[in-house]
Amino acid sequence: MVTTPETIPPSPQLPDDPQRARSDVRLLTEGSLIQSDGYCDQPYVVIAADGAWVCVVTSSDDHEGDPSQRIISRRSTDHGATWTDPVDVEPREGPEASWAVPLVLPSGRIYVFYTYNSTNLREVITDVGTSPRVDTLGDMVFRYSDDHGRTWSDQRYTVPMRAFDIDRRNPYGGEVLFWWSVGKPEIVGDAVYISASKVGGFREERLGFQRTSEGFVVRSENILTETDPSAITWTTLPDGDVGLRAPQGEVAEEHKLVGLSDGSLYCTYRTEVGYVGAAYSRDSGRTWTEPDFARYATGRPIKNPRAATFVWDCGGGRYLLWHHNNSNTWFGTYRNPVWVSGGLERNGVIEWSEPEIALYADDPQTSMSYPDLIHDGECFWVTETQKSTARVHPLAPDLLDGLWNPPALGSEGLLFDSCASVAHSIELPRLQLRRGNWRIEDARAGFSFQLSLTAGEPDRILAEQRDPAGQGWVLRQAGADRVQLTLCDGRRESSWTSDPGTLEAGRRTQLVAIVDGGPKLIMFVADGRLQDGGADRAQGWGRFDSDLRGVTTAAPVEINESTVERLRIYDRPLRVSEAVAGTNE
User: Fold this and answer.
1) Using alpha carbons only, how large is the chain's radius of gyration in Å?
2) pTM of the predicted model as reported, rounded to 2 decimal places
């Protein structure tokens, strides 16, 4: 049965934590540390049968690809607030062990699958020479734990992988398999599926710049019942010689799949063209639909740079998608902030909501990636890593509720309504400042402007509240079809402009401009859609100056009534889901 919005249960409340209630749980440094020494990647968690969290990490003493790269595990019995000292799943003496993905069975046994350089190859051929990095090749192997992740089996077992055409075209003719996995195994029906990515070659002297890649799946139909690891059977999918490819370009990698209510599979993955790749399988992974981009319910493709993008099953017909809401096409520093969209299964497909910001770092150059979703009891957490520090973060229940159960826009925080107020001065909240060990901070810092307007003459002011020195804010029509918001604290000024085509002559537009003082972003929601830059720019959101402070003045709010039918101002950054509801009124 497909779950409808009316039957979806509300998201739970997080455990009481007075300190957390005063902070912004989206801020990166508010999370609880998992590891902050050496290199740490893919901090993935399963919940053991004794209730503890078991986190498996790809780690090394120095950097990604270091010869000491190995698999370690830790346990936590307090929802990630503290962790035990690491236990080696594979030792640092090598050869390299990497990209671990854990699975807990209903029986309580925990498996960890990973890439293992079993032949101890010390260099590989690339397009321009050789590379000493050897952590994305070899066998798929696993160990297991029958004591809730405290210790791991002495023996290592191999999962057979069938070669595809992309393997036979690599520099070794398929004798060496280049591959890695970032997607935790999924139990769908009576089978277990592990998604992974094959690589056909590398552009440069160091691995990590894959020239061609495509996805594959290994399926086991007896792992849930077979207690002898050597007797577990495996099938490499899809059928044939070609894996799961990108809709455009030659890069399709870091596949992550989930099951749907009818047993179908849905898979997301990163591409090199700035969008999330996606496909469905209706026959247990043997064949897949023609690759497409994951899309919002409105039909727009979901933007994402060359960064991990994961889909998670949250139960009750609900899904969550991690992405970065920009279409930059390289690795770079395009992984901050983190956005999530909520998905609902309808008629065998997942319809994705407009996204919300889940995590951000103050430094725009900080990247967050390789997350895992933890669903424990009635609460949700997410892990992430910056490759040198890994953390776990609670997800705010009202954020999740808004994704799956879109709210109406109420009057909370409403400061001004032009249809109910005379023009007068209003006081907007000061924006957050963080400097070293001191901060001026409010978890709800920011404000929002909601307008109902019709395009007028180009470059005219729509509404403003500014003193003679220019301190305050102004909304103006930029050209014939855009809206610009400018903020000034008397010392510095920041502006951001909506996407081209926001306004159209003779058509009423419902618009919300959100100023979010946490990640320091300005974003626009127009007629039910969060603007994403479309085909004209990589993203629809812009950063304002991190030193910008208060923009309140004693000046009155002035409105161009010939163009603006209504203006409402809120003393908080609206959730995107609220703004969507407000612009659909």
Assistant:
1) 25
2) 0.94
Angle at 219 (CA atoms; ends 221, 200), nearest 5 degrees: 165
Mark out the alpha helices in 300-456 (DSSP H runs): 397-404
Interatomic CA distance for residues 425 and 554, integer angstroms: 6
Helix (H) or strand (E) holding 440, with range, is strand 438-440
Per-residue pLDDT reduced to its tens digit, 67-113? 999 999 999 999 999 999 999 999 888 899 999 999 999 999 999 99
DSSP class per residue in 44-102 = EEEE-TTS-EEEEEEEESSSTT-TT-EEEEEEESSTTSS-PPPEEEE-TTSS-EEEEEE
Q: Give the whole-angstrom CA distance, residue 86 versus residue 271.
A: 34
Predicted confidence band of residue 420 (pLDDT cuts 50, 70, 90):
confident
Residue 568 forms beta bridges with which residues? Answer: 417, 450
Helix H, strand E, coil C: the string for 478-508 is: ECCCEEEEEEECCCCEEEEECCCCCCCCCCE
Amino acid at 334: Y
- The pair of three-digit structure tokens given for residue 4, joined into one six-digit string: 């409808």
**Residue 96 CA neighbour count, 13 Å, CB half:** 24
Amino acid at position 454, single letter: T
pLDDT, tens only, 179-202: 999 999 999 999 999 999 999 988
pLDDT tens digits, 514-523 = 999 999 999 9
Residues 6 or more apart in contact with residue 327 via CB below 8 angstroms:
273, 274, 275, 303, 304, 305, 533, 538, 539
